[in-house]
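Let's do one together. I've listed all components of the complex below, 601 residues spread over two lines.
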Amino acid sequence: MASARIDRETAQRRKHWDRKWIPYALLAPALITILIVIISPLLTTIYYSFSNVDLIFNRTTFIGLENYQELFTSRLFWKAIEINLKFAAIVVIVPTLMGLFFALLLVEDFIGRGIGRTLLILPWALPWIVIGLLWNWLVNAQFGAINGLLYSLGLIDKYIPFMADEDWALIFTALASAWRQTSFSAILLLAALQTIPEDLYDAAKVDGAGLRARFRFITFAWIRPTLTIVLLYNIVLGFLQFDAVWIMTQGGPGDATMLLSVLLYRETFINFDLGMGAAVSNVLGLITLGVGLFFVRLTYRSQAAYA
Amino acid sequence: MPAELGTPGRGIIRKLMTYLAFFCLLFWVGFPVYYMMITSFMKSPELGARPPHWIPQQPTLDNYADVVFGDARQRGSSGGVNSFSRMMPALLNSTIVSFTVVLLNLLIGGMAAYGFSRFDFRLSRFAYLGVLMTRVLPALSLIVPLFIILRKAGLINTLWALIFTYTIFILPLTIWILREYFDTLARDIEEMALIDGATRWQAFWMVVAPLAVPGLIAVGVMSFMEAWSEFFFALTLTNSLTYPPLLMSYRNLATVNWNGLAAATIVGVLPPVTVAFVFQRYLVRGLSEGAVKG
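Okay, and this is what the predicted structure of the assembly comes out as:
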């Protein structure tokens, strides 16, 4: 009798512990470390953006909106916005379209498909620093592969210093980012394409749907949620990319590849104006957050429409 | 596999278009990589040849020897600074960091994901959303406060600075993917184990964890790739202890040894590329689950 009661008591205590403490014990390590390493720096950055941070005397003075006022009236900021929009346009359009193209190819049945699928992963597996180096190689004015190729084909008789030209520099830094992002997009889209049930096509054929109709109402409709996510990722990258651009041009020539992220780096680590750097980073954060929320709503709405 | 998706036409034309597209893919991915590879097998005079040698005429492994054995045979360049003597230690450091990050990430992230999946307590929705929000932050902007915190903790220029930072920045993605994964695992088996007298702890390790192995692999592989590749934190929080910032430092030298740099680059990407190829299936799954379940 006694032991049965003890058993029941232990069981009850355990149940109590289960319900009350286990969830918190499970979440605590993750939430506490995220609080320290992500949330608290985030709040600090927001505070910095309203302050003048004096590194020499280690003083932080609250100055209200002054950083933002200065930022929004500076020519460089608006130039960076313009450059960043162009950059993002390439980083969104090229990977999304090429990713879709490669995904549609690799879902076909042909000899070499396995090689193609494996090769597709390669750019994604390379670190951004290596992407930057690789594209430096391609566009180099002394021994670059693109110059080499054009020269071999007889299209040019003098090597072109691409990265000394403002437009080429922006295009090639964007293409470098697009190169890796194309793989990422294609991987996601290919995975989505592979889940389309074959019956759908058969049924549509029986119903007399043409190739175009089948693509639009089956293929496209099926992968639309994935396509939305791919677009989201590409847009966010278009604004957050730093590594590859920094390695290739460090913002130059002149200010030709001065993305917002490069501007942020420059204000913080070269001009040591932490307040201004924080202001830029908050603007950048708001842009990506806005894009993110917009797409989340879009996804939910389209899901609701299908339901 | 549906054979009907993109390309119109049939028979020979369809085949022709498929292979044309295939060639585009080969060129798009292969050309940049191929060029770096042949550079790594050349001696520096050959690099400047015009028209370029698309196949090295005097292939050499010297560049790789320089990278692996430090600068023992460094020829004709500025000596000490341009040496690759820090390369192998950096690769070792990268390995240590990456594996520790994977383990910590699986442990902490797995626990949290399981908590989010099985218990619906008051804070959980809010905390979960908060965790997800961290994914759209420009990590760049957190570096200054982060640097101050890590300096106070005495971790600047140690591998721990990177291990902590990477683990915690990857956590949100891990929690996201694993939570979805745990949600799909049947609760019934687990409940049954609990009724049979197993503790939560036992139920987790004996029932849930084994079923979750594919999800854990996917997440592990992704965090390995991220930890191996991260550049910016490594650049600012350490003095080039790991592979990515060290590579950058060679690039910034006044006299860049391009052929050696190519070899160093290739040696350093072997681990992530191998991991990606070997775990292709898991990776694709992890990627699409992490991305699409938003």
